[in-house]
Design goal:
Elements: H1 2-14, H2 17-26, H3 30-62, H4 64-76, H5 78-85, H6 106-114, H7 117-146, H8 151-176, H9 181-201, H10 206-220, H11 223-235, H12 240-269, H13 273-296
């Protein structure tokens, strides 16, 4: 509980996408920012694609301790990478965004963010995103085991998710530079929920599981460049990491509910039926509210703005 829950949770917060997106945003123009966010998210997806099969193989062949030390070795690569990425702090900051919070203190920026209706819709919808994704990563192996599937299938599915994550992250990073990011975000939630419902409605097979993983992977981390780009457009770059971190808190609370709540429902009912139905219903609702909020206050991405 201390190592796997508290320490890994704190480590995740310190290495989360908000920091990587904040660093990359400073190094590129506004027109390229959404695409670069997609590239950064895709890089993380490549790691997921590689890590799941490696971890499963190390654990199966040598035990879980060797598997853990394998990930320790991978984590050490972050140290020199972080040192190099820190040079972004020397890049001059752009002029303050009109209506943004670049010229305010951290406390004022925080209050402005939580008092911003469209941003809070993003944060609440991000809660549902975390609920769906971590419910899946936590309980899919157990679900497949209950259905008599090979234990390696869950690792293969996570690897496929990571691979298609690359394509989805690049696509939605590109698309976010051309169309309304928040409409795209709501569309992802609706599409993902439909895929989730279709998969759990019928008994799984190895083929349907891998197809499901590919479709889910395409929509998995496509939300990250869209959220990061929307935060930068709404508030500016100075406090982007902090404000994106606020949204990420919602995501992680949803992750807790998805993992723990899914387990509680299974223990109480002996089935995942209610859990996946709730995940689908909340995802459809979150997507509809996100699109409605975006259409009420439409914005255009920097790539199509007229020059000053």
């Amino acid at each position: 509980m201390i190592g796997g829950g508290i320490l890994i949770g704190a480590s995740l917060a310190c290495t989360a996408s908000a920091l990587a997106m904040s660093v990359s945003a400073r190094a590129v123009s506004a027109q390229l920012r959404s695409l670069v966010f997609g590239i950064v998210s895709a890089a993380g997806s490549i790691g997921a694609m590689i890590a799941a099969p490696i971890g499963q193989s190390l654990q199966a062949a040598h035990g879980w301790r060797v598997g853990v030390f394998g990930f320790v070795a991978l984590a050490c690569i972050m140290i020199p990478a972080a040192w190099i990425a820190g040079r972004a702090d020397k890049v001059p900051e752009p002029p303050p965004l009109p209506g943004g919070v670049d010229d305010r203190s951290a406390g004022q920026a925080f209050i402005a963010a939580i008092g911003n209706g469209p941003f809070m819709v993003i944060a609440i919808a991000f809660f549902v995103c975390g609920l769906q994704l971590v419910f899946l990563t936590t309980h899919l192996p157990t679900y497949l085991s209950l259905c008599g599937m090979d234990p390696m299938l869950s690792a293969e599915a996570l690897g496929v998710i990571g691979g298609f994550n690359v394509l989805g992250s690049l696509f939605f990073g590109w698309a976010g530079g051309r169309w309304n990011k928040l409409v795209l975000l709501g569309g992802i939630y609706i599409l993902r929920s439909a895929i989730l419902g279709a998969y759990f409605y019928w008994p799984p097979t190895p083929a349907t599981t891998l197809v499901f993983a590919a479709l889910m992977g395409f929509t998995w981390l496509g939300v990250v460049p869209l959220v990061a780009g929307a935060v930068a457009e709404m508030f500016g770059l100075r406090w982007q990491a902090m404000i994106q971190g606020i949204a990420f808190v919602g995501h992680q609370v949803g992750s807790f509910v998805g993992a723990f709540g899914g387990g509680l429902l299974y223990d109480a009912l002996g089935s995942y039926d209610l859990a996946w139905r709730l995940a689908v219903a909340t995802g459809l609702l979150a997507g509809a509210v996100q699109i409605a909020s975006a259409l009420m206050r439409p914005t255009r991405p920097p790539a199509v703005l007229a020059p000053a």
